[in-house]
Design brief:
two-stranded antiparallel sheet, 1% strand, two-stranded antiparallel ribbon, globular, 643 residues, 29 helices
């Protein structure tokens, strides 16, 4: 197999000709129904969902009111990427999103990789949203007096891991009633579930239900999907504005002090959660073929969606952290929670209903995007021909839509929410990185027909070195300890929960006896909850470190050091090495600043994700390469062109 065959490219002219010849090839054209207003609504439908109704709580608990700066940073990063998406969408107004754009800029093997990554993004994103929808839906049923068994409303992994952690904490002296609600639910689901042999049958059945319903709607057609999306967007925007309007009267500005209680580290801890809140605007680009005027409307739709949603996120974050102390917001339903805390139960009910609607609209947009990626890959011969089949009546990619339903529905029964959220984020960020890089690669190409939209050009040659110097001054001047700890791989002390859940029964007793011996006031006696006992020392880092150092257990339980600590820093080292290369490239080639900043910001957010997400993502890409070399390369339509 010739190496240059892996990087064979499609031209924009050929892509546009191929769209015109779809009917002759047995592919019906997709219906053109979408305007800029519809695209903006699709963007809002995708963005205002799990982020504003769920993950904003965890991010606010980590960063405090200063989480608004993380929303701003993420919005700016997404805006940079949106400029690149909009330029490509204007240049190549067909379905396929980043996959099609990469085929033009980098060649077939990179296009396949990004297409395979997008399949993961949309599949895993859909699973995430379906699980979140299930949580809100079952909560709504419970408030109406209908309580489903825990084992039919929770995924297998959450129940399994929760049971183990709950058992370890109770072994450490914690009462079941003092476990977090999530651990109580997981323990109950595992212990009450029916068993098939030794297998516990725990499956999220409501998640399956919503996927089936949404898939059926998308199969019916773009008009029906558009109308349903627009209605749901109106409903949830009204509710979000109502939350802001009512909540602002209950804001206590004392809750904003301190504004950044956990510093920069606390704010950045919410990167994955906050970025997930913005995932979805790129799904707009998959509908390019169904737009009435894609070159004009796609850029407008993307930008308006990001601007509107950012303003809403910042307003909601300020209201939430003003209504209650930020530390109370680490819950799955923060909007409903704050009104329950203030005894405004009528608002909690409205929010619960709107959350169910909001999650469904996000799922609709995500579920709509994936079949169109598969359709584009099938048209190019990289997937079997049936994936590009368009329904003669409904004008939708029928076979790909049905397969998408199965691919999302089955894992949603069993996978863990945190795992799929992070996997979705890394797949999306990887797509953003390649799209931004594609604009940089093509910026000086004169043989590419340009669309109506072009990213404003600002030369980054001297700006990038200045930004790097500013970054170094901040790192070594204002954040020196954290920077030096990172460089020297300084040993880290584990938190109380990590230590307690790692102990066996004998070690638990030893730790308890030690804590009794160092307590001069004997407050420890009679309180066997090790997590609480250790956590009370955590208010002062030096005191906590001294207590942990004296525990009569192995250092491997107390500390994280050496390679086990360094491995979590590998993604950040990759980012720093690539950043140095980008600075050199920008100086040599006068790169455009906006797509370059988009690439850097998205790569930085990838680096903030755990090394395990990179490993899982790498395994997914390897599976994709096996399929490419086993089927796609030899069936690619570019083989016919070369022949």
């Amino acid at each position: 197999m010739a190496l240059n065959g892996l990087f064979r490219k499609k031209t924009v002219q050929d892509i546009l000709k191929q769209v015109e010849k779809n009917n002759a090839d047995g592919h019906d054209a997709l219906g053109k129904h979408l305007t800029a207003r519809d695209l903006t609504a699709f963007g809002i439908a995708a963005i205002v969902g799990a982020g504003i109704f769920s993950t904003i709580g965890k991010a606010s608990a980590d960063g405090g009111p200063a989480v608004i700066f993380l929303f701003l940073f993420t919005a700016i990063a997404c805006s940079f990427a949106a400029f690149a998406y909009a330029e490509f969408a204007s240049m190549v107004p067909v379905s396929g999103s980043a996959y099609t754009y990469s085929y033009v800029a980098f060649g077939e093997i990179i296009a396949w990789i990004i297409g395979w990554a997008l399949i993961m993004e949309y599949s895993v994103g859909n699973i995430t949203v379906a699980i979140s929808w299930s949580d809100y839906f079952t909560g709504l049923l419970k408030s109406g007096g209908i309580e489903l068994p825990q084992w039919v409303q929770m995924d297998f992994l959450t129940a399994s891991h929760g049971f183990k952690d709950a058992t370890a904490l109770m072994q450490g002296g914690k009462e079941f009633a003092n476990l977090s609600p999530a651990l109580q639910d997981a323990y109950t689901a595992w212990t009450t579930s029916p068993m098939i042999g030794s297998f516990h049958f725990v499956a999220d059945l409501p998640a399956l239900l919503i996927i089936v319903l949404i898939t059926a709607l998308i199969y019916r057609g773009m008009k029906e999907s558009r109308n349903a999306s627009n209605i749901m967007v109106v409903v949830k925007l009204c509710v979000v504005l109502l939350v802001i309007a009512v909540g602002i009267f209950y804001v206590d500005t004392a809750n904003w002090d301190p504004f950044a209680p956990n510093g920069v580290t606390g704010v950045l801890k919410g990167v994955s959660a906050v970025f997930f809140a913005y995932i979805g605007f790129d799904a707009i680009s998959t509908t390019a073929e169904e737009c009435k005027d894609p070159q004009r409307d796609l850029p407008r739709g993307m930008m308006w969606a990001i601007i509107i949603c950012t303003l809403l996120y910042i307003a909601i974050a300020l209201v939430l952290t003003g209504m209650v102390n930020f530390s109370l917001l680490n819950v799955g339903d923060p909007l409903a929670f704050v009104f329950q805390e203030l005894d405004l139960k009528w608002m909690s009910g409205i929010i619960a209903v709107s959350a169910v609607v909001a999650m469904a609209s996000v799922l609709l947009v995500f579920q709509m995007g994936q079949p169109r990626i598969w359709m584009s890959m099938s048209r190019d011969g990289l997937l079997p021909k049936r994936f590009s089949r368009v329904h003669p009546k409904y004008k939708t990619p029928s076979y790909a839509t049905i397969v998408t339903g199965f691919v999302v529905a089955v894992p949603a029964l069993f996978l863990n929410l945190t795992l799929v959220t992070d996997l979705c984020s890394i797949g999306t960020l990887f797509a953003f990185v390649l799209v931004c890089a594609g604009v940089l690669v093509l910026q000086n190409r004169t043989d590419i027909p340009r669309g109506k939209f072009k990213t404003p050009y600002v030369n980054s040659k001297f700006i990038m070195p200045v930004l790097i110097i500013i970054g170094l001054v901040f790192a070594f001047g204002y954040n020196k300890k954290a920077t030096m700890d990172f460089i020297t791989n300084e040993t880290q002390v584990n938190n109380a929960e990590a230590i307690v859940t790692s102990l066996n029964k004998e070690e638990t007793q030893k730790v308890y006896d030690y804590l009794v011996s160092i307590d001069p006031q004997n407050k420890t006696v009679g309180n066997p909850d090790l997590e609480v006992l250790l956590s009370k020392y955590h208010k002062d880092d030096a005191t906590y470190s001294n207590v942990i150092a004296g525990l009569p257990i192995a250092d491997s339980i107390k500390y994280e050091s050496g390679f086990s600590l360094f491995k979590h820093k590998i993604p950040m080292w990759i980012f720093l090495i690539v950043l140095a290369g980008l600075v050199v490239w920008s100086f040599k080639s006068n790169l455009s600043l906006i797509p370059l900043l988009g690439l850097i910001c998205c790569l930085y957010m990838m680096a903030e994700l755990s090394v395990w997400n990179w490993i899982y993502f790498g395994i997914w890409l390897l599976i994709g390469l096996v399929i490419y070399f086993g089927f796609s390369h030899k069936n690619s339509k570019l083989n016919d062109v070369e022949a």
